[in-house]
Amino acid sequence: MIIAIDPGNIESAYCIIDKDLKPVEFAKVKNEELMMMLEVATYEMQTVIEMIASYGMAVGKEVFDTCLWIGRFDHASANPAELVYRKDVKMHICGNTRAKDANIRQALIDRFGPVGTKKEKGHFYGFKADVWSAYAVGITYLEAMRNG
Description:
Blueprint: E1 2-6, E2 11-17, E3 23-30, H1 31-40, E4 46-51, H2 61-76, E5 82-85, H3 86-94, H4 101-112, H5 129-145
Parallel strand pairs: 1-4, 4-5
Antiparallel strand pairs: 1-2, 2-3
């Protein structure tokens, strides 16, 4: 199993994904809470974090704070974290680096099935906003990066 993280400067989304690519647990939580989760995780769970990349544009304090949290999450993990760049997620999931969040979400639904309803829960039932990104980071790592 892996825990995939879409980091933020105050809160981060995470998704625990099993060997069958199913989301086992997911949420968006305060960074301090996620760090405590990572500290008690076992060596069998690999941490995968979306990494920030520079594209020459000016960024604000929030981006630098997010970078600090990426380092903290890595340090708190039982194993060194694997870093996945957004452009790699876009290429793996959509085949295009210009893909937007909505494109990634739709490509995941097309592949794994509908979100579902309370009565008939689908693969993504309960997913919200940044959890989609965390799941996409995890799928990219598991399928395209883990073994080479």
